[in-house]
Amino acid sequence: MNLDPLLALTAFGIGIVVGLTGMGGGALMTPVLVLLFGVHPLAAVSSDLVASAVMKPVGSLVHLRRGTVNGALVRWLCLGSVPAAFGGVLLARGLGTGDDVQHVVQVALGVALLVAAAGLVVRAFQRLVERSRGLDAQAGPAPAIRVRPLATVVVGAVGGVVVGLTSVGSGSLIIIALMALYPTLRAQQLVGTDLVQAVPLVMSAALGHLLFGDFHLDVTVALLLGSVPGVWVGARMSSRAPGGVIRATLAFVLLASALKLLGVSTPDTGIALAAVLVIAPAAWTLLQRRYRPAPTDDRTPAISPA
Fold first, then answer.
1. Is the pTM for the entire model greater than 0.85?
2. Which ranges of 143-242 would DSSP assign to H, the alpha helix?
3. pLDDT tens, 57-109?
4. CA–CA separation, 160 vs 214, rounded Å?
5. How far is residue 57's CA from residue 49's CA, in Å, rounded to a whole number?
6. How many helices (H) and strands (E) does the chain have?
7. By the 8 A CB rule, do 34 and 260 touch?
8. Inside any domain, residue 42
9. Domain total of the chain
10. Could you tell me if residue 255 is inside a domain?
11. H or E stretch including 255?
């Protein structure tokens, strides 16, 4: 087994980002494997999912101990996501084993990254609105959530298929859908619930890829050697890091990766990214001015999602 030290080092850096932001594991790791290390898309998805199945339970235990998990939502999400994730693997396998399936997985991954990047922006905007209304200052028990079983199962199923096919979505995509379904769900519960439901989801997808995918042991071991300590370091740094800047960078990287995976030419990708760099800061500044916190809130307005 040949381990790539550069891959392990890269995984360490991505692990730090995940520890800092709680997002971006598959959304960053898989395109890095494809674009920088030349790993076939299906092999990249398989190896990343198996590595994630080892890492996910750690963060989940923290949220379970803090009581920031809505168990009812987890159960309904898993009812849809666990079988759908396994089905997503079978879908990828059924598409073929040659260049055709690699192309389909690559395009699906590009679309998933675009949605994930948009989700980060939506989440940032929601947090800005929450703070302007003083919602972060709420004390006492979290409001009761009226669970919508059918819609929640559908969200889990759709997210499961995407995860099984691309390894993206267990955090970046499903969390956005939960925000839309349950707007009163507090940030800590949102993250904790999503992370816990992602454990069986990712394990189901990982099992499917071990059986039917293109799993590479050397790639997975390198990912684990780098990402596990990286996540630990990132989590330790999270209380002092500029989260808004990190999440903005993450969204920018997701957008760049998505454009390349979708076959956009390098000049066109450069033009699109340059436009984002010019327009996004000005637009965000205007939004910050419009959604300023109430005068009684003496805290500095946050520009990052929770």
1. no
2. 149-166, 174-181, 187-212, 217-237
3. 766 777 787 787 888 999 999 999 999 988 888 887 776 655 666 677 778 77
4. 19
5. 13
6. 11, 0
7. no
8. yes
9. 1
10. yes
11. helix 243-261
